[in-house]
Amino acid sequence: MVLFSKPKGKFQSEGENPTPNVVRLFRDAKGREIVMTTEPIRSREEAREQLKRLEDFFGAPVQPLWAFCSGMSTWIDCIIKNNTDPELTQGSMPHGYKYYEALNQMRIDIRKSNLLGRLFYAKEQLRTRMCPVHKGHYDGQAMFFQKCPHLCDGTGWLRERQQDGGYTGISVHEGQIEGGEFKIRDPETGEWKKPE
Is residue 4 domain-resident? Predict the structure, then answer.
């Protein structure tokens, strides 16, 4: 599976042959015009058809991110089993024998990774400029409570684009019991409010 590849088709500009509720995306490598609607997808079958069109365009499989993650997790499980199951370890040298013991820790690191969340979910570019305060290292206080004035968002790396914005994948709020009621502090205003 190719995660990223340059499109093989050609994009058509917005001004050419505009059609209501249809976006003409491109002509594929064979010259066929591929169109996708802007209407909401109404069924799994329709979603599969849209994915097929994207696969034609990219010349590679296109899947939801969870499907890729599931495939990687299955691969990790197979490599570990291939190196720990007595029936599978007899005879030849198992694939992955040099690194299989590190795979479970890698799985945890991947699931916790703010970098991967920013790249895949927030669609940020890789941050390449080090924060002068946090110097390339994670700081939970700066990520969740006291925002870094340099906009590293607690990652230790400065945003590449102004519109990128502190993706964490989780929401953490400071809370307290006040007058018998639980309240959280609004990170923007600092006011204590009941959770909605």
Answer: no
Query: Which of 89, 112, 135 finishes a domain?
Result: 112
Q: How many residues would you count in the chain? A: 196
- Cite the DSSP H helix spans in 24-167: 44-58, 65-84, 103-112, 114-120, 140-144
50 with 98, same domain: the answer is: no
Question: What is the gyration radius of the CA atoms in the chain, in angstroms?
Answer: 23
**Residue 158 is assigned to a structural domain of this protein:** yes
- Which structural domain range is residue 100 located in? 65-112
* 86 CB-near residues (< 8 Å, 6+ apart): none
Asked if 78 and 71 count as a contact pair (C-beta separation under 8 A), the reply is no
Per DSSP, the residues of 126-149 read PP-EE-TTTTT---HHHHHTS--T
- Is the C-alpha dihedral spanning 156, 188, 124, 54 positive or negative? positive
Q: pLDDT (tens digit, 9 = 90+) per residue, 72-111?
A: 999 999 999 999 988 888 877 778 989 999 999 999 999 8
Task: Answer yes or no: is 1 within a domain.
Answer: no
Total structural domains within the chain: 3
Give residue 26's pLDDT.
Answer: 59
Tens digit of each residue's pLDDT (9 = 90 or more) over 37-86: 677 888 999 999 889 988 988 899 999 889 999 999 999 999 999 999 88
